[in-house]
Amino acid sequence: MMAGLNEAARRVIIAKNVPDRLAAELERAHTIVAVDGDDVVGVAALDRSELIRFHVAKSHQGRGIGSAMLMVLEEQARLNGIGRLELLASPSSAGFYASYGYASLGEDRAVSGNAEFVNVKMEKDLTQS
What we know:
4 helices; three-stranded antiparallel sheet; Aminopeptidase; alpha+beta
């Protein structure tokens, strides 16, 4: 979990992912939630032309939940007149996005104190699909 992050970065992410902060971020985006019974098993959001907070519980990966959420958000982007989507993928999830036509723009590295964040910048032209 949290591939591309060192331990200090993991602590930063955990500290920032508190309900009040997440709620504010997700309220300003087009957010979808996947549920299984009473359990939230996935969340993803479209913030203008950027996919954010895209996550499927490990126990539910490989069941098409991520694919379905991605298709819904891509369609919403098209309805909003957005022609290109961008995202920062963890190194372990870059293959998932590539399989849906997202192109890698290279590695994105950021350092804040001892925290090192490694992501893959990706984009997809929605006018071609």
